Protein 1
Amino acid sequence: MTSALSAGVIPAAGSGERLGAKRPKALVKVGGCTLIYRAASKLSKVVDEIVVAAPVGYEAKIAKSLRKLSVPVVVITGGRSRTESVSLALGQLTPGIRYVLIHDAARAFAPISLIRKVLQMLQGGENAVVPAIAVTDTIKIVDENEHVQSTVNRESLRAVQTPQGFARALIDRAHEEARLNELIGTDDASLVEMLGATVLIIPGDERARKITTASDLLHYRNLKQKMKQNVKRSDSKGGKV
Ligand code: C5P
């Protein structure tokens, strides 16, 4: 184990079109807090600094909302793709950083225990660590006419989450290669895989589910509401919160 410095990178520059909200997804609120605040405040309990890639025009607003976190936070303008947003954020890390945890703002409810576990695996010597859960649906590959081509063996499928953790040198190299070859990945591990490096999967967490659609948002809003009601109930019974 080592106590070398770690950083959190939060791609939060998505428009959230699929959510159908009036503002960018990172600024949508659940239980009174924005998704970016929830994601960054949890990360701040584990890492030494944070870089956020924000939607154009929202940089100052996001920086202001995060100014009271316990670690330094830098907010930059995000890129045209998630890969570009992460790449730009990596360029802002201070030189002493050895481990990087890349965490989607859209996975704002990932628990601190999961974030800590990813960092611990890096500190233990792993170079690329990705939380994931087993896929319970049967997945089929289709052609352009929606005709089924084949059925994938579910046993070997994993749905990956964030935070994804990397040794800094490795993720810097992966993004540099991606930039040179104009490659875009839907996650960061895929760029590391292209270098031929080993990526370790660890058990993910249902709470780290990505908020993409209005029904995902409703799920978390209902959950928060239920938690609030439970707290009120135990308060009125004189119970400990
Ligand atoms: O689009 P998708 O849901 O895969 O986005 C995952 C994360 O990447 C979100 O937190 C989103 O804000 C972020 N993103 C970004 N820059 C973009 C597009 C997406 O930071 N250009």
Protein 2
Amino acid sequence: LVTENGGVGVGVGDGQKFLPSDSVINLDHGDPTMYEPFWRKMGDKATIVIPGWQCMSYFSDINKVCWFLEPDFAQEIIRLHKLVGNANTEDRYIVVGTGSTQLFQAALYALSPSNATDPISVVSAAPYYSSGLYRWAGDAYTFDEEGPYIELVTSPNNPDGFSRESVVKRGGGTLVHDLAYYWPQYTPLTSMTDHELMLFTVSKSTGHAGTRLGWALVKDKAVAKKMTKYIELNTIGVSKDSQLRAAKILKTLTDSCEITEKTDHTECFFEYGHLIMAERWQQLRDAVKRSGVFSLPQFSPDFCNYKRTVTEPHPAFAWLRCEGEVQDCESFLKGHKILTRSGRHFGEDPKYVRVSMLDRNEAFKLFVERLSSIHS
Ligand code: PMP
């Protein structure tokens, strides 16, 4: 990305290192490149080779509801959830998707009544993460329409990082739980979730956003079947190459934490992730204090069943607020060559911006340095 000043923008591409101090810092997307050093260190343990003759068929296991789900990937998903204890995989159907983005569309298709004349309302409590592609009925707090609806519960939430529960408490609704960030590096795992339809993604759990894989844990067989049908109509399945790679990545991750339960904790992916996130949040809070122009949400610590100790939430995004005169925080930060996403995109005030906490070290360092030097 070549920027106005002819320099190279930060936050895109593979393995970018050197950053001139006046670089544009792009923290608009939640690109999880922060995890690269861990996977670099894993080397051959997380590498796969796929011979030319392999993965040629459309089909993976025709006896399964999701017939394009690779058994190795399914097995590693179950193993990882068992290790972490963040979601119940017993008596569930696993549906794989090209990112949890495709699975969300599949879920909307599966949960919409087939005989309805109008599209179903989709709501989520503000601030929310939404493309608004479907019949978006907006903020769940103010939703008062009749008829069936789907409520999307993102927990921890994108953009503000808080843990959430459903808001619309009336009949005729179905819940979709987006648990992309319900992993120990981001939040204390306070319960083994057991919802009807839960979405996960490698993008945020391991950092492999480019692999484009997500999975849904679905209680109801008919819903899992309909989601599978949607993906069949949309992309005739999901890349097997990606699934094999993701299986190896998840296996390496689980191995790294299983082994270190007895030995060295720092080798475990979740310990590594937790340590960096804690460090980054501390640095960000220090920078905000030094600047005096911004504020951040405060989170309550809680007992994490995985880490068996009290931990604090360290969300993947910072929901930063410009205090004082500044009305448009996104433009204000852009003036300081920091690219973020305005609160407006999430149904909130433009005094807020969402800032990715998952970029490479060099970019994050530059960001906190620059932020701390901004004064009113
Ligand atoms: N859900 C949430 C809450 C997200 O923040 C994101 C990515 N920003 C996604 C889903 C999409 O993930 P994927 O890369 O798997 O499509």
